[in-house]
Amino acid sequence: MNHKPLETARAAWGSALPDWVERLAIECGRASQNKVAAALDRSATMISQVLANKYPADLAALEERVRGVYMDQTILCPALGDVPTQVCQDWRKKAEVFLASSPMRVLMHRACNSCPRHTGGSK
User: Fold this and answer.
1) Collapsing DSSP states into helix, strand and coil, what is residue 74?
2) Range of 101's domain?
3) Are residues 13 and 63 in the same domain?
4) Distance from CA of residue 80 to its chain's centroid?
5) Which of 9, 15, 54, 72 is deepest in the core (most CB within 10 A)?
6) In this structure, are 90 and 59 located in the same domain?
């Protein structure tokens, strides 16, 4: 395992290192930033900036993905039941636009737009 990503994160974040950033760094050390970025459906540049504590935007959406993909965090979806957080995030994004192309898209459009987690736009 490559310990460099974890060392980078610890140096950049210090004692304020969030548990999910630590896990992100560990996963980058196990695989690579590119593979982790692909698994999270985010750019390797974003991952690098987060590890270095230099990402200029809100980190809530990335935190949700890391917790779902690597930390097995789930939420109770009113339509699907217990799902990983990134699955919820993906459906919220898709639900922003109504498409009658499949019954599942219609179901999720209705469910996501009436869900308390829906904020009017996804991250």
Assistant:
1) strand
2) 74-114
3) yes
4) 18
5) 9
6) no
Q: Report the alpha-carbon distance of residue 17 to residue 27 in Å, rounded.
A: 15
Q: How far apart are CA 80 and CA 114, in angstroms?
A: 14
The tokens of 98 are what?
């109504």
Three-state DSSP state, 52 = coil
Distance of alpha carbon 97 from the chain centroid: 21
In this predicted model, what pLDDT tens digit does every residue of 35-77 receive, in sequence order?
A: 999 999 999 999 999 999 999 999 999 999 999 999 999 999 9
Cα 69 → chain centroid: 7
Note whether 66 and 86 are same-domain residues: no
- Please calculate the CA angle 48-51-52 and round it to the nearest 5 degrees: 85
What tokens does 17 get?
A: 């290192």
The count of structural domains within the chain is 2
Q: Which amino acid is at 27?
A: E
Quote the pTM value.
0.84
